Automatic annotation (TrEMBL):
SUPFAM superfamilies: P-loop containing nucleoside triphosphate hydrolases. The keyword ATP-binding applies. Pfam families: ABC_tran. Gene3D superfamilies: P-loop containing nucleotide triphosphate hydrolases (3.40.50.300). PROSITE patterns: ABC_TRANSPORTER_1, ABC_TRANSPORTER_2. Residues 19-255, 270-512 form the ABC transporter domain. The keyword DNA repair does not apply. This is ABC-type sugar transport system ATPase subunit. Keywords: ATP-binding, Nucleotide-binding, Repeat, Sugar transport, Transport.
Length: 533
C-alpha cells in the first residue's frame, strides 16, 4: 500500500503542509491514545482520517487545535511552529474544527456568534449592533452561506449551524478546517449540500481534515486518506489507490469478512404475536395518523429524513412525547403517551438520538451509566450494591466489546463510539420486550456497527421486537421490513430484498416505493417543522 506520509519533506517550490504533526504521543493515565503518530495535510487538500472507535482520531484533533498538548512530538502550520498554548487568536487563524456537536450559542444571534468576543474592536468601545449585523451579512455572503444574521442560532438547522461555524473559522483567517463527523446529524440532502460547500471552498484553497465512519463519504469527498489503528499511524494513501476492502483491512488489521449472519434479516417464522402496535398515532407538529405493528421476532426499520417525523415517533414510544390522538400498545396493553415510566413498565428499551443530551451522565462511571435503568436488579430492598453493579457492567463491556480501561472509568473518558455502545448496553440491560433504537450505530466504526446491529437482531430472535429508527442504509439492511415516513406520514413499506435506490427515493419523497403501494399523500401540510422537531 502506498504511504505518502513517509515521503521526504516538501522541497523548494512545494508549499509546506497547512498542518503537519510528527512523532505525536499522548497518554491518559494508563491509556495510550496516540503513539508516535503523524499526519500532513497539503494546502487545498481534502484529507480523510479514519480508524476504529478509540483509534486516537479525536485526540489528534484536540492536539491539532491546541486544546491538548502532546506528551511528545512536533506540530507545524504552513511550515511554522504551532502557536503558544493559550494564544487563542493565533490558533484560530491557523485551524478550526467543526464538531458534530455545535459550539455556537443558541441564545445568541448568528451575527453575535460570528463576532463573539470581538464585537467592539476594542476593549472599551461600545458594540455597534447595526455595523455588526452588516459585517455578518457580508461575511456570510462572501462564503455563500444563506443564513439571516439576525436569526437566533437555536432556530437554525444543524446544517446551517455548521455553515455558520465554517464561515466563522474562515473569518479568522484559517485555511485549514477539521470536520469531526460532520455528517452524523445530517440527512442525505444536508450531506450533499455540505459537500458542495466544502468542494467550493477547496477550490478557493481551503484544506480539510475530514473524520467520518461512513467510508463512502471518504471516497466521495477526499483525495487522501490516513488510517490510524490502536493509537498509531498505519498508512496514508491517495483515496483512488485504496479500495474499500483494503481500507477496512487497514482499519481493523484483519481481512475484511462478510457480514455476520446474525445481523441479517431472518426467514419468516410461524406463530408470531404482535408486540408493538401504533394505532393512528398523531403527534402535534411531527406526524399524523401513523399505524404500525411489529411482531415477535421482527426487526422493523422506520426510515425518514430529518423532517419526516420518524425520530419523534420513536421517542413517543419511549414516552417522550404526548400524543394528540391515537394509541401505543405493547403486547396489547396501552402505554400512556408522554410518560417514560409507563413506557419502561411496558418493557420498552430505548436508544436515544443524542447520547450527550439524552443518554449519558459524563462524570459517572461506565458501570453506573450502563445500569441506570436496572438499579432494581442491583441489590435487595431498593439498595444498589457496587459489586453487583460492576459485575453487571463487566458483562456488558464484554458483551458489546466496549473499549474502556474498566467499569469504574468515567464515561466521558471513552471515545465517542464506545460511549454510544454504553447507551446501547443500557437499553439492552432491561431485556426489553420492544427495543426502540434511534440511529443506533451513530459514531460507531464499521466493524462495531455489524456487532451492534447483530445484538439488536438478537433481541428480536428472543421473541421480542425491535424498531430501528434511522436513515442509514446499513442500519436498515438488518431489518425484516422498512417503513418509510415523509413529512409526518408513512409513504412506503419495503420487504426484504429492497434496492437502495428505492428506499432512498422514498426517504426523499421522490416516489412512494415499489414494494407495497401505500396511499401516499406526499403533502407537507401535516409535516414536522423544518427541523423535524
Ligand atoms: N480525557 C480522556 N481521559 C482518558 N482517556 C481518554 C480521554 N480522551 C480519550 N481517551 C482515550 O484515548 C483513546 C483514544 O480516544 P479518541 O477519542 O481519540 O478515539 P477516536 O478515534 O476519536 O474514537 P471514536 O471513533 O470512537 O470517536 C481511547 O481509548 C479513549 O478512551
Amino acid at each position: 500500500m502506498a504511504d505518502t506520509a513517509t515521503a521526504p519533506a516538501a522541497g523548494p517550490g512545494t508549499p509546506a503542509p497547512v498542518a503537519e504533526a510528527a512523532g505525536i504521543s499522548k497518554r491518559f493515565g494508563a491509556t495510550v491514545a496516540l503513539r508516535d503518530a503523524r499526519i500532513a495535510v497539503a494546502p487545498g487538500e481534502s484529507h480523510a482520517l479514519v480508524g476504529r472507535n478509540g483509534a486516537g482520531k479525536s485526540t489528534l484533533v484536540s492536539i491539532l487545535t491546541g486544546l491538548q498538548q502532546p506528551d511528545t512530538g512536533s506540530l507545524r502550520f504552513s511550515g511554522e511552529p504551532a502557536p503558544a498554548v493559550g494564544d487563542i487568536d493565533a490558533w484560530r487563524s491557523r485551524v478550526a474544527c467543526v464538531y458534530q456537536r455545535s459550539t455556537i450559542i443558541g441564545e445568541l444571534t448568528v451575527a453575535e456568534n460570528l463576532f463573539l468576543n470581538r464585537q467592539s474592536g476594542g476593549a472599551v468601545r461600545p458594540i455597534r449592533w447595526k455595523q455588526l449585523r452588516r459585517r455578518a451579512g457580508e461575511l456570510l455572503g462572501e462564503y455563500g452561506v444563506a443564513v439571516d444574521p439576525t436569526a437566533r442560532a437555536r432556530d437554525l438547522t444543524v446544517e446551517q449551524r455548521q455553515f455558520v461555524e465554517i464561515a466563522r473559522a474562515l473569518s479568522f483567517g484559517a485555511r485549514f478546517i477539521i470536520l469531526d463527523e460532520p455528517t452524523a446529524k445530517l440527512d442525505a440532502r444536508g450531506i450533499e449540500r455540505l459537500f458542495d460547500k466544502l468542494r467550493d471552498l477547496q477550490r478557493q484553497g481551503v484544506a480539510f481534515l475530514f473524520i467520518s465512519h461512513h467510508l463512502q463519504e471518504v471516497y466521495d469527498l477526499c483525495t487522501t486518506v490516513t488510517v490510524y489503528r490502536d493509537a498509531a499511524h498505519i498508512l496514508t494513501s491517495p483515496v483512488a489507490e485504496l479500495g474499500h476492502q483494503a481500507l477496512v483491512e487497514a482499519m481493523t488489521g484483519e481481512s475484511a469478512g462478510v457480514a455476520t449472519a446474525a445481523g441479517r434479516p431472518r426467514a419468516t417464522r410461524a406463530n408470531t404475536t404482535e408486540v408493538l402496535a401504533l394505532d393512528a398515532l398523531t403527534l402535534p407538529g411531527a406526524c399524523e395518523d401513523i399505524s404500525l405493528a411489529v411482531r415477535s421476532g421482527e426487526v422493523v426499520g422506520l426510515a425518514g429524513a430529518t423532517a419526516s417525523g420518524n425520530v419523534q415517533v420513536g421517542e413517543a414510544i419511549a414516552g417522550l412525547h404526548r400524543a394528540r390522538t391515537g394509541r401505543i400498545s405493547v403486547r396489547g396493553r396501552t402505554v400512556r403517551t408522554g410518560s417514560v415510566p409507563s413506557a419502561l413498565a411496558a418493557g420498552v428499551g430505548f436508544v436515544p438520538e443524542d447520547r450527550h443530551l439524552q443518554g449519558l451522565v459524563g462524570n459517572r462511571s461506565v458501570a453506573e451509566n450502563a445500569t441506570l435503568t436496572v438499579t432494581d436488579q442491583l441489590g435487595p430492598f431498593g439498595t444498589v450494591l457496587p459489586a453487583r453493579t460492576r459485575a453487571f457492567a463487566r458483562n456488558m463491556i464484554r458483551d458489546l466489546d466496549i473499549k474502556t480501561p474498566g467499569a469504574a472509568t468515567p464515561v466521558s473518558a471513552l471515545s465517542g463510539g464506545n460511549q454510544q455502545k454504553v447507551v446501547v448496553a443500557r437499553a439492552l440491560a432491561t431485556v426489553p420486550d420492544v427495543l426502540v433504537a434511534i440511529r443506533p450505530t451513530n459514531g460507531v466504526d464499521v466493524k462495531s456497527k455489524e456487532f451492534l446491529l447483530a445484538r439488536i437482531r438478537q433481541v428480536a430472535d428472543d421473541d421480542k421486537a425491535a424498531l430501528i429508527v434511522s436513515d442509514e442504509l446499513d442500519d436498515l439492511k438488518v431489518c425484516d421490513r422498512v417503513v418509510v415516513m415523509f413529512h409526518g406520514r408513512v409513504v412506503a413499506e419495503f420487504d426484504r430484498g429492497w434496492k437502495d435506490e428505492d428506499v432512498v427515493a422514498a426517504i426523499e419523497g421522490v416516489s412512494g416505493g415499489t414494494a407495497h403501494a401505500i396511499a401516499s399523500p406526499l403533502s407537507a401540510s401535516s409535516g414536522a417543522d423544518e427541523h423535524g422537531r
